[in-house]
Amino acid sequence: MKIKRKLKYSLLRLFRLKGSPHQIAAGMTIGFLPNWFPTFGLGPVLSVALARLIKANLFAAVFGGLIGTLIWPFLFLLNYKVGSLLLSQRPKIDEIKEVDYIEALNHTVDGFENFRNGGYMFLMGAAVNILVSSIVIYIAVYWIFKRYRVGLLNKVRFNDKRM
Question: Which residues cross the membrane (predicted)?
Answer without folding.
Answer: 58-78, 120-145
